[in-house]
Amino acid sequence: MNRLNVLIYQERPSQQMTLHQACNAQGVFNVRLAEDLPAAKACLASEPLFDLLILDHAMSETAGKRLLNHLCSVHGVRAILFVGEPCASRADLAREARQRGLWVLAELPWPITMPRLEQALKRLCSRSPVVAREGFQTVMLHAHAQ
Length: 146
Known about the structure:
The chain is of the alpha/beta class. It has one domain: Rossmann fold (3-Layer(aba) Sandwich), CATH 3.40.50. It is 40% helix and 20% strand. The chain has helices at 13-25, 37-46, 61-74, 93-99, 114-127; strands at 5-9, 30-34, 50-56, 77-83, 104-108. A five-stranded parallel beta sheet has the order 2-1-3-4-5, sandwiched between helices. Strand 4 (77-83), helix 4 and strand 5 (104-108) form a beta-alpha-beta unit. Helix 2 (37-46) runs parallel beside helix 3. The model is unreliable at 129-137 (pLDDT under 50). One of its GO terms (biological process) is phosphorelay signal transduction system.
């Protein structure tokens, strides 16, 4: 797999780690985790362009809309992958992202399956070449590193 630069913003730590491990299993090792909305926005503003942002479809509508507004203003991500199902009582964030011109790579059900994730990552890599990056790093929350 190409050296993709991935940011995961998932409010549930157990699912965050599962997504991180799933990316690693697909050969994607440059994975960053954002523990909350301010951390996600800071990562998107400070890093070079992320190839993929993985989001929880059921995140709060307020946080989701704020993040979409931020993405439209900073252009910090090439594609978004939504995991899980949208809540019936809230706005469909994937549809809203598409309406704003953001590329929604896929909407995968939870629990995530390796073949579906692999297909999405291959589609991301084939759509436009990823610039080779020097080395790689895996970053996790301090609480998970102990």
